[in-house]
């Protein structure tokens, strides 16, 4: 066995937080090693945000082309999907980004890139299984940015059938005849609309009585109605999901209160949540104990219980988005390099669901605000009464703002509608600046935009 190479810092995983942290620590004069076992850029770049949003764009183009006559545009024939071309475009987006991350890492000052699987040998030493044998590395500071992967729970019959996940579904260069998606949340719904727009029959099977259980009920209902109008079928309250081979197809037992007890699909996509990549890091050798869901417990500054080891991104259970992983890098770097201190608890929850129209969300839902004891004022407006949406011919959805009735503080917003993923940032920026609802309502916003209606929604809140 080789003697251990010594570094000032080692980063496990070249995902969203890891690569940026390497650059910052290297620029500060540290000798840094980054270990990546698979694709540079991690989930978002290779099998998450980027390829899925590239597919969302192709699906939108198909949808708009089918609606061309609504805008007085004639296509002069059927709208077709060239799935190999759709896939090639998606692959190009992801592969270009992956290559750019690799180039960025390999050009970084003070950074050594190692390709292989890292495991702990002690709190300060790692072994790395590479294509050319095992390496040993030591450092007083180790940062874990290991990300996560799709859950494949031990559901009845699952061993007897082939299922797709977020990685394998992206490899399809054919349109499934009937795609059954188990799980009606972010991943399930984005893929449901993508494949429906490409021409597949799609059924979403969800164990809860409604989609997106974290959202307010009217938002869940509006999303279901939008997707049903495109021909997506839903089987909700599917308590006892099971699988069985059915000739060349797959039978998915749903056992709902209403409807047929089984859905027969040509393909099944599992989208029932994610698990952190913490089971193969040999963390016990570092003295780190995982929580009951497999996440690495961290404090508000992302330090683990073991001095000199931090955990960033999806593997710490404090966020499940690219922007939260990126913010984890900012927090760790700022605190380590003596910049103004930053903490996880400073960030305001925000995310989007990239169906069309998208759902942009910040802060609390109305239900969460009431549960937290706030007396609330709520303003809302259907997108059919938003001028920009009418002009674009995209009037589905609603916007909603939640305000603390006593303090006038902005508590949260949901914008389900054309441009909702962008427009919601005006509420987010106001919340970050601790602007009151009245302060935002008195701000002049640009016409004609979706955001310009936010002051009107606040003005009508009761
Ligand atoms: C289908 C899908 C769509 C998504 N869409 C969005 C979206 O639109 N917006 C959004 O904000 N988020 C989205 N996400 C979530 C987002 O992709 C993740 O939150 C984000 O990528 C997490 O980044 P990370 O830095 O924590 O880890 P990752 O990006 O997962 O990186 C971890 C890296 O560590 C490596 N690694 C793991 N273990 C080891 C080891 N032992 N040794 C060496 N290397 C190791 C992995 O190979 C990987 O490259 C989506 C996720 C999925 C699955
Ligand atoms: N737009 C985005 O930012 C985006 C897009 C995709 C994914 N992501 C990230 O990926 C994460 C995982 O997404 P996800 O949709 O896989 O998981 P999730 O945890 O958000 O939702 C899982 C869904 O599956 C359902 N479910 C769980 N077990 C089930 C079962 N046995 N049968 C039927 N339904 C079941 C749950 O009720 C829930 O609705 C998200 O938390 C998110 O952070 C983000």
From TrEMBL:
Domain FAD/NAD(P)-binding: 8-325
Required co-factors: FAD
Keyword list, A-Z: Disulfide bond, FAD, Flavoprotein, NADP, Oxidoreductase, Redox-active center
Domain (Pyridine nucleotide-disulphide oxidoreductase dimerisation) ranges: 352-456
One Pfam family, short name: Pyr_redox_dim
UniProt record similarity statement: Belongs to the class-I pyridine nucleotide-disulfide oxidoreductase family.
Name under which the protein is recorded: FAD-containing oxidoreductase
UniProt source species: Roseateles agri
């Amino acid at each position: 066995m080789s003697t251990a190479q010594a570094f000032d810092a080692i980063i496990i995983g070249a995902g969203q937080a890891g690569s940026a942290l390497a650059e910052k620590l290297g620029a500060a004069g540290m000798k840094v090693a980054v270990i990546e076992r698979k694709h540079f850029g991690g989930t978002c770049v290779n099998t998450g945000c980027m390829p899925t949003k590239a597919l969302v764009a192709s699906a939108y183009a198909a949808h708009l082309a089918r609606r061309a006559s609504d805008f007085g545009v004639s296509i002069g024939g059927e709208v077709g999907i060239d799935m190999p071309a759709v896939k090639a475009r998606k692959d190009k987006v992801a592969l270009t980004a992956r290559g750019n991350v690799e180039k960025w890492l390999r050009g970084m000052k003070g950074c050594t890139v190692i390709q292989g699987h890292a495991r702990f040998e002690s709190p300060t030493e790692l072994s790395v299984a590479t294509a050319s044998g095992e390496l040993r590395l030591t450092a007083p500071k180790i940062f874990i940015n290991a990300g996560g992967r799709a859950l494949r729970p031990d559901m009845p019959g699952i061993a007897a059938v082939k299922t797709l996940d977020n990685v394998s579904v992206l490899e399809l260069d054919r349109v499934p005849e009937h795609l059954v998606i188990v799980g009606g949340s972010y991943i399930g719904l984005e893929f449901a609309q993508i494949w429906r727009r490409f021409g597949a029959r799609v059924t979403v099977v969800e164990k809860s009585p409604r989609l997106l259980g974290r959202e307010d009920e009217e938002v869940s209902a509006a999303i279901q109605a939008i997707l049903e109008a495109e021909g997506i079928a839903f089987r909700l309250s599917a308590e006892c999901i099971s699988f069985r081979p059915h000739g060349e197809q797959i039978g998915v037992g749903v056992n709902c209160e209403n409807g047929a007890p089984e859905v027969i699909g040509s393909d099944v996509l599992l989208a029932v949540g994610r698990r952190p990549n913490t089971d193969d890091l040999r963390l016990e050798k570092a003295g780190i104990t995982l929580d009951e869901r497999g996440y690495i417990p961290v404090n508000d500054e992302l330090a683990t219980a073991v001095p000199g080891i931090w955990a960033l991104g999806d593997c710490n259970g404090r966020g499940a988005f690219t922007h939260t992983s990126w913010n984890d890098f900012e927090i760790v770097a700022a605190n380590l390099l003596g910049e103004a201190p930053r903490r996880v608890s400073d960030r305001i929850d925000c995310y989007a669901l990239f169906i069309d129209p998208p759902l942009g969300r910040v802060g609390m839902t109305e239900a969460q605000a009431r549960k937290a004891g706030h007396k609330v004022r709520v303003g809302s407006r259907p997108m059919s009464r938003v001028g920009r949406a009418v002009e674009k011919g995209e009037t589905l959805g609603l916007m909603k703002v939640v305000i603390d009735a006593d303090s006038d503080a902005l508590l949260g917003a949901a914008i389900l509608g054309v441009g909702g993923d962008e427009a919601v940032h005006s509420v987010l920026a106001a919340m970050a600046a601790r602007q009151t609802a009245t302060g935002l309502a008195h701000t002049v916003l640009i016409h004609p935009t979706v955001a310009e209606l936010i002051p009107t929604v606040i003005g009508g809140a009761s």
